[in-house]
Amino acid sequence: MLTQVKQTKTISTLLVDDDRQFRAGIRTLLNFSHIQDRAINVIGEADSLALALSFIKQYTPDLILIDIELIEGDGLSLLQQLQNSNALSRTLVLSSHQEDYWIYQAMQLGANGYVFKGQVSQQLLDAISTIMQDQICLPPEVATCFFRKFQKTQALLPSQINQPCNLSKRESDILYWLVQGASNDEIGKQLYISVATVKTHLTNIFLKLNVKNRTQAIVTAIKMNLV
């Protein structure tokens, strides 16, 4: 089922979840909330992969809240297709799955954040605020699961560490602050450079690391011991 309401100049949001009652509760919460002085406007809902993709293609929402479980398809497949199409929407996984596997897969596929269902409303709003500032949101318990995955990966050969990507000193500095969760504006202030310069360096970093977004860059940087 796909429903739509009038779109306004706000944080346009799509809810992708197979539970109609849960969507209704989240819609009510978000439609009465503001993030950074911007109202959140739920412009649509979808309970399947196909309907979500159709809506995204037509409306390009600013934010997509995604559950892993859908009536047809799943949230990971949606993330994969968004990643392949270089979609501009920010994505927040809102799921009852707390296992390492799901968290790791979602972040590998470019999710900007992961929040467990059942957390208090303010935690969800804080997560949305974080990712709308172009940062990654991993609550403490999620971060523990996420980084535990890296501890289990096979160690790289010494010759692979710190030298596979030919990052410049400036690019390495920017990558360090990126892993710390800094926004482009915060990185610029730390390094005394403009946001435009930060974005240019990030584009070069993504090319050298062969990644498509900030989340993948962070994953690769940690995995390859680049920071």
From TrEMBL:
Residues 160-225 form the HTH luxR-type domain. GO terms for biological process: phosphorelay signal transduction system; regulation of DNA-templated transcription. Keywords: DNA-binding, Phosphoprotein. One of its GO terms (molecular function) is DNA binding. Pfam families: GerE, Response_reg. It comes from the Bacteria. The modification 4-aspartylphosphate is found at residue 67. Residues 12-132 form the Response regulatory domain. SUPFAM superfamilies: C-terminal effector domain of the bipartite response regulators (SSF46894), CheY-like (SSF52172). This is DNA-binding response regulator. It comes from Dulcicalothrix desertica PCC 7102.
